[in-house]
Amino acid sequence: FKQYEREDVVCALASGMTVDDAAAADGEADAADEKTDGARTRSPGTIREALARAFGYAPPFAEHVALTGGIPNGASASLPFDDTVRDAYIDALTTAVQGLESWFEGVTTGAVVATPVVTTKMDSKADGSEAIEIFDDFSPFPLKQNEGKPVKEFPMDGVTDPACAFDHVVDEYFTALESQSGVLARRKVEA
After folding, report:
1. HSE (CB half, 13 Å, CA atoms) of 146?
2. Tens of pLDDT along 152-168?
3. Distance between CA atoms of 48 and 45, rounded to whole angstroms?
4. How confident is the prediction for the chain on average, in pLDDT?
5. What is the C-alpha separation between 161 and 176, in angstroms, rounded?
6. How far is Cα 128 from Cα 16, in angstroms, rounded to an integer?
7. In angstroms, rounded to a whole number, what is the distance separating the alpha carbons of residues 13 and 113?
8. What pTM did the predictor assign?
9. Which among 75, 15, 65 is positioned nearest to 42, based on CA atoms?
10. What is the mean pLDDT of residues 3-29?
11. DSSP assigned state of 25
């Protein structure tokens, strides 16, 4: 695993690439400039876009990083940052990126066990009656954007191996999600 540094985050916010990727792209671009008249990829417009392009983060992970970094509006925040907050935001995002990457590395090496979190919300019929609990989000660890949301617990029934526990929760989640989809489809037909 590459440990990303502040320079990688600065580069990601400016170009949507890490320092190493930007250097490689510059070499390729020099050769391609003769064919494209120097046209380059545009800069990312939001933190979500920058983190997705540079680090390959899915939107929920980009949102988690931005909120962990204390960025107002989370991953939807526009780029570039105002000069008055730029350095503080970059430092905070660097720490958040490093934390997420450490988690990924820990799961990969077995030093960290993923702890699945399923958040829920209430759904009512169009007339406001018969509210039921439905799944809102599934993540392999508690995401910052889900803090304070109701969480669905799945019984472990004798599962003691942490890796098997994660697989068990994933299986239970998708079984319950299929059932929930049928209930929601029937509710929609009845409406």
Report:
1. 20
2. 877 766 767 777 888 88
3. 8
4. 88
5. 22
6. 44
7. 30
8. 0.84
9. 15
10. 89
11. H
Rounded-to-integer distance, Cα 177 and Cα 191, Å: 21
DSSP, collapsed to helix, strand or coil, labels residue 112 as coil
Backbone φ and ψ of 26, nearest 5°: -60, -40
- 106: tokens are 């820990």
Helices (H) and strands (E) in the chain, counts: 6, 3
Residue 39 pLDDT exceeds 50: no
Q: How many residues does the chain have?
A: 191
Residue with tokens 């440990």: 3
Which contiguous run of DSSP H or E holds residue 96?
helix 86-109
Fill in the amino acid letter for 125: K
DSSP 28-86: HHHHHHHHHTT--PPPPSBHHHHHHHHH---HHHHHHHHHHTT-TTGGG-BSSPPTTTH
Cross-sheet strand order for the sheet of 117-123: 132-139, 117-123, 151-152
Return the pLDDT at 23.
87
Residue 111: count other Cβ atoms within 10 Å of its Cβ.
10
187-to-66, 176, 179 alpha-carbon distances in Å? 36, 16, 13
Other beta carbons within 10 Å of 25: 15
Question: Which tokens go with 174?
Answer: 């998708």
